Amino acid sequence: MNELELKYGCNPNQKPAKVFVEGGELPFEVLNGKPGYINLLDALNGWQLVRELREATNLPAAASFKHVSPAGAAVGLPLDETLKKIYFVNGELSDVAAAYVRARGADRMSSYGDFAIISDEVDETLAAYLKGEVSDGIIAPSYSAKALEILKAKRKGNYLVLKMNPEYKPAPLERKQVFGVTFEQLRNDIKISEDCLKDIPTANKNFTAAAKRDLLIALITLKYTQSNSVCYVKDGQAIGIGAGQQSRVHCTRLAGNKADFWFLRQSPQVLNLPFKPNVKRPDRDNAIDVYIGNESEDLLGGDNWQNVFTERPAKFTDEEKRAWLKNLKGVALGSDAFFPFGDNIERAHKSGVEFIAQAGGSIRDDNVIETCDKYGIVMAMTHIRLFHH
């Protein structure tokens, strides 16, 4: 099949809509449901991301996409008991399931209603986990029979399931139309590898093996994130992605705040919140997000807390938050281009960043390097820009 009619384009008023290829077959097969325009943008961008993560790390990879940017990305490393609790995991997970749980779990608010992208065959443990989550669809190279049965029953039988052809290679040139004008360029096929991390201008030049892996995850994730963008990674998973901002300083703050929230969710104050047993996952996620944030009185004030808690929890004070965040260490950070100010480094340091990869080439590189040296941060100049639009 070389053409597929869609429900509509980006918006319901944009009809008719379709996808097609010239001189070949579509690289995916619809196993269940009916795809929309944004579904396929997420699926095809996300597939490229997880395929590159798989090649770079030799581990199963997954991404959680929302509206053409990854809300999360990760590789299949085991979860400790704390992560299992905050990610709602019961029982054992396969490596491929762990990759998706990590990708979705780091920023559960952004991953709500996501498109799941998986590098390897989807098995029963992954499908069973997805069964309990709000998600629009999934793409993977294959599915076990039991996994496919579970997924086809999701959303009253309308869950979108796509099978990707892993052997598909697109043409080297890509085209895009904007307002009737066609743009053409060479696909961004640059390979992200440890060779990107060899130019280290900082005084500290000691990248750990885990840091190199995490920086590769950050850079590959950035390649499929709307510019400007910054990505924080720890232990094989993105824990904060800031994208689509005009200022890279604001990207750093946004991603840093998300990384902080991820770590604060692991604090005793949050792990011991007295939730009612019947609270649904999305309501629980939202309550935690408000509780951790600066507007906790919206939840704790008045009688609102009674909707989710058995008793009113104590406020999570700013002092308690700062004390807990001091334990966040070993975070890796990637940027899709250069850092223009040392302010980026100052903010990143507050969220436990010890390793950085950024393009370099700013007239203020000296200030950025000096700020890294102030905190003992290792930084590599990749000399690669990863703009994506």
Shape: globular
Strands in their spatial order, largest beta sheet: 3-8-7-6-4-5
Low-confidence runs:
none
Strand content: 15-25%
- Termini distance? 28 Å
Would you tell me the overall average pLDDT?
95
Helix tally equals 14
Number of strands: 15
Fraction of residues in helix: 25-40%
Instruction: Find the structural class using helix and strand composition.
Output: alpha/beta
Radius of gyration: 21 Å
| Major sheet description | 6 strands, mixed
- SSE topology string: EEEHEEHHHEHEHEEEHEEHHHHHEHEHE
Can you put this structure into words, describing what you see?
By secondary structure, the chain is an alpha/beta fold. The protein has helices at 37-57, 81-86, 95-105, 108-111, 124-131, 145-152, 209-223, 248-264, 268-271, 281-292, 297-300, 318-325, 342-350, 365-375, and strands at 3-5, 18-20, 28-32, 61-66, 69-75, 114-118, 135-140, 160-164, 173-178, 181-186, 229-234, 237-243, 331-335, 353-358, 378-381. Strand 14, helix 14 (365-375) and strand 15 form a beta-alpha-beta unit. The longest helix has 21 residues, at 37-57.
